[in-house]
């Protein structure tokens, strides 16, 4: 144990030495060395009162067994453990009593989740898809959803309960969580529409990919074959370039915001198919937009504009407007009404937008209306995965709102 | 007042021009920076305290973290990249060390901080921040690498810069209390066939399950990095340090440690951070970061700007299994290799800096580096990885990287046969 004493001793000794040195160095502002400044001996250190929180035990630890408790901290109260101990295990341990139906879940999902995950849990933009993707895991681009990938239902319940909705976590009651999870199961065709999920029947639900995981086998499948003395000379016949990053051209501008003119690279050959980083998910999506000077903002009904601002919340995860707006997963939308389609420099549009841009087409209010009603019909091949706005009045409102932002 | 910004294009052109002239040149005219008295040699500089906490000088304003906006839906749940192309040595300054948040970087004060240990312990405990400072503590340097580092490169060369391909890594000196000390304070069950579940105080919680064997080995509950408090974005005031294992397990704003019989199988260890193989089955519990290396300069963001002659090739190597023992560098795309010089002997689960001091006469190069660690493991090629795993694993891509250095000194991320 004297180990820790020595440690304390040398730390204090070090400080004393440093102070002395500093004093000696201060040749122009001579200060007197603090009285009594000298190196403390380890014993003195041990005996010195702890700065805060009571006596710490340098000396006390001397007798204590090396790994014995130091008596630091206090016992957690049952209420405190209950407040934080929320995790749910695959066998259902940790689930609170409660239940919720698919029907209730649909409404709750629409209110709380659809803005990012889509009305049918199909996902919106770059936000995670929660439904679909069955039998895609061996494909080139697997679609990993709760239904196609997640091995345990407890994970979905736990995550919704603990961390969702995004920006308003831990706001859902257990019954609401059961309902939302029931709806996600329904969206994946794992349960019927009259299903009610509860803590009673929770472990009866079988997840389709439950058996799809193996424990890390790198020690058997990889390490033995990638060990030993590697080749140093004449290791291969020829070296040919098989792929170049600048052909794909998806690197952000080097110089940060001001976009230090990257030499314009070749046109991307294919649509950007990317393994995304860990948040991962699906390919990029992008919507359209921008550049030519916009038409003068139309004078519009203030109420309509206000309504449009609300509707625009559904768009905000992917699109920005207003001063300093930047491209997100969708292009910024300042001046979009009247702007050339696919005209924002530096934004990676889908082919269909590139073509519209090439043809000099613009976003008239009519064209925007059609696009916002059914994006995938209006612009076939668009990367914008937002399914569209159902109500025509919402579309009018959001166009009115967007008209207020000049380029 | 800021300097006029040099555009990358102008810069590269400049580099190209310089590159044709050879090294030991004779000056045609005296250098006015030497022959004329400069303002900084005549007037006065700043007094002390002009910046009570200093930031890098403005000439270095380009050495910053960068994000790839299309990667994620929203910067709140996203990642950015350490500018490894512009750093040297091994310690990453906190201010430019990559960030990864799942629900944003929260602000949690020391006075509001609580850490709970519960579950299968003799006595569930609550610690304050001050309590943690009363336990014997240790100092260790470790790298922290996101499992998704280089994950965008599985299907091909994609991002043009070491910052973007390999910048989800940092390396700091941590000060903290071993997790085993805290667990023993609460009293552990006799068997070690247990798990600990760790979670953060932010909305994502980012909970992960860690087998007890690792928890009792080298995991640290850390509150200082590089000598000062953790930055907000790295989990101030307390984060978990899980040496050699994927960064997602290094829970930030650590608030709870639960001793359990089995893993929770949380979102972060099932739907994410699992590695799908070509046949559609997926590996789970792929915690260790295998040996890996990358040349940081020259590289696409750090082209050769000087003329022919001496050239320093440098990079980083690391292994989650222990120490780096050797790094080889190839300038011809892997046909021939030379063993590089390690700046210091490899350190356990920490970054190692390597140098190859060489000559360059303007020839095209295909630069690669290949790390070996103390287990004898040799960093594989991308082809070797794909042969075992396919292209859909997302995580744990530790392949050999190739930079194509062109005669003008510019470099590009490429894949070679």
Automatic annotation (TrEMBL), chain A:
GO terms for molecular function: electron transfer activity; heme binding; metal ion binding. This is C-type cytochrome. The keyword Protein biosynthesis does not apply. The lineage of its organism: Bacteria, Pseudomonadati, Pseudomonadota, Alphaproteobacteria, Rhodobacterales. Residues 261-285 have a biased composition (Low complexity). Residues 100-188, 303-406 form the Cytochrome c domain. Keywords: Electron transport, Heme, Iron, Membrane, Metal-binding, Transmembrane, Transmembrane helix, Transport. It comes from Alloyangia mangrovi. Residues 253-285 are annotated as: Disordered. The chain crosses the membrane at residues 7-26. SUPFAM superfamilies: Cytochrome c. It comes from the Bacteria.
UniProtKB/TrEMBL annotation, chain B:
SUPFAM superfamilies: E set domains, Oxidoreductase molybdopterin-binding domain. Residues 108-265 form the Oxidoreductase molybdopterin-binding domain. It is an enzyme of class 1 (oxidoreductase). GO terms for molecular function: sulfite dehydrogenase activity. Its cofactor is Mo-molybdopterin. Residues 283-402 form the Moybdenum cofactor oxidoreductase dimerisation domain. This is Sulfite dehydrogenase. Its EC number is 1.8.2.1.
């Amino acid at each position: 144990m004297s180990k820790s004493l020595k440690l304390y001793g040398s730390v204090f000794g070090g400080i004393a030495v440093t102070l002395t040195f500093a004093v000696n160095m201060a040749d122009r502002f001579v200060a007197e060395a603090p009285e009594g400044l000298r190196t403390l001996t380890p014993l003195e250190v041990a005996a010195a009162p702890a700065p805060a929180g009571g006596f710490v035990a340098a000396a006390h630890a001397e007798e204590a067994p090396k790994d014995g408790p130091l008596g630091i901290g206090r016992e957690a109260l049952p209420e405190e453990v209950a407040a934080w101990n929320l995790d749910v295990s695959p066998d259902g341990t940790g689930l609170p009593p409660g239940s919720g139906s698919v029907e209730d879940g649909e409404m709750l999902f629409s209110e709380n989740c659809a803005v990012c995950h889509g009305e049918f849990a199909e996902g919106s933009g770059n936000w995670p898809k929660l439904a679909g993707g069955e039998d895609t895991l061996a494909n080139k681009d697997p679609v990993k959803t709760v239904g196609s990938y997640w091995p345990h239902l407890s994970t979905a319940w736990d995550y919704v309960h603990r961390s969702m909705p995004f920006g308003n976590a831990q706001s859902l009651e257990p019954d609401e969580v059961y309902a939302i999870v029931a709806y996600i199961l329904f969206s994946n065709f794992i349960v019927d529409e009259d299903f009610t999920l509860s803590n009673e029947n929770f472990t009866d639900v079988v997840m389709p990919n439950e058996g799809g995981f193996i424990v890390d086998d790198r020690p058997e499948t990889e390490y033995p074959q990638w060990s030993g003395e590697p080749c140093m000379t004449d290791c291969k016949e020829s070296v040919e370039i098989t792929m170049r990053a600048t052909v794909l051209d998806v690197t952000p501008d080097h110089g940060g915001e001001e976009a230090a003119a990257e030499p314009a690279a070749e046109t991307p050959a294919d649509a950007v198919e990317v393994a995304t980083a860990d948040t991962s998910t699906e390919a990029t999506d992008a919507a359209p937009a921008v550049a030519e000077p916009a038409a003068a903002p139309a004078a519009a009904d203030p109420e309509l504009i206000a309504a449009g601002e609300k509707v625009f919340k559904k768009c905000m995860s992917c699109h920005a407007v207003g001063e300093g707006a930047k491209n997100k997963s969708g292009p910024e939308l300042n001046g979009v009404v009247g702007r050339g389609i696919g005209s924002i420099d530096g934004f990676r549009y889908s082919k269909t937008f590139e073509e519209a841009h090439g043809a000099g087409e613009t976003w008239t209010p009519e064209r925007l209306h059609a696009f916002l009603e059914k994006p995938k019909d209006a612009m076939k091949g668009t990367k914008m995965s937002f399914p569209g706005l159902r109500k025509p009045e919402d579309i009018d409102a959001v166009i009115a709102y967007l008209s207020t932002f000049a380029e | 007042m800021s300097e006029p910004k040099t555009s990358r294009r102008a810069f590269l052109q400049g580099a190209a021009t310089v590159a044709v002239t050879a090294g030991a040149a004779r000056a045609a005219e005296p250098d006015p920076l030497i022959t004329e008295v400069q303002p900084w040699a005549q007037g006065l500089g700043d007094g002390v305290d002009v910046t009570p906490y200093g930031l890098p000088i403005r000439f270095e304003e380009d050495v910053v973290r960068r994000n790839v906006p299309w990667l994620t839906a929203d910067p709140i749940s996203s990642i950015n990249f350490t500018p490894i192309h512009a750093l040297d040595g091994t310690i990453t300054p906190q201010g430019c060390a990559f960030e990864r948040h799942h629900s944003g970087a929260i602000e949690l004060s020391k006075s509001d901080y609580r850490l709970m240990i519960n579950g299968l312990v003799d006595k569930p405990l609550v610690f304050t921040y001050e309590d943690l400072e009363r336990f014997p503590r240790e100092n260790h340097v470790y790298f922290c690498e996101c499992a998704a580092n280089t994950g965008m490169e599985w299907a091909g060369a994609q991002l043009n810069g070491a910052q973007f391909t390999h910048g989800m890594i940092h390396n700091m000196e941590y000060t903290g209390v071993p997790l085993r000390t805290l667990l023993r304070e609460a009293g552990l069950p006799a068997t070690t066939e247990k798990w600990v579940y760790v979670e953060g105080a932010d909305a994502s919680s980012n909970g992960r399950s860690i087998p007890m064997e690792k928890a009792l080995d080298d995991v640290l509950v850390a509150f200082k990095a590089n000598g000062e408090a953790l930055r907000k974005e790295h989990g101030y005031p307390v984060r978990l340090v899980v040496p050699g294992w994927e960064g997602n397990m290094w829970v930030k704003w650590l608030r709870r440690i639960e001793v359990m019989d089995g893993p929770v199988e949380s979102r972060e260890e099932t739907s994410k951070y699992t590695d799908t193989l070509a046949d559609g089955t997926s590996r789970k519990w792929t915690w260790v970061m295998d040996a890996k290396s990358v040349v940081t300069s020259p590289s696409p963001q750090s082209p050769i700007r000087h003329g022919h002659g001496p050239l320093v090739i440098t990079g980083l190597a690391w292994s989650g299994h222990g120490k780096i023992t050797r790094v080889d560098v190839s300038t011809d795309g892997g046909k021939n290799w030379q063993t590089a010089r390690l700046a210091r002997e490899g350190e356990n689960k920490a970054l190692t800096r390597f140098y190859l001091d060489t000559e360059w006469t303007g020839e095209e190069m295909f630069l690669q580096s290949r790390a070996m660690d103390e287990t004898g493991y040799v960093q594989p090629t991308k082809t070797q990885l794909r042969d075992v795993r396919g292209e859909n694993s997302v995580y744990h891509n530790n392949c050999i990287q190739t930079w194509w250095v062109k005669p003008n000194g510019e470099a590009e991320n490429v894949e070679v046969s």
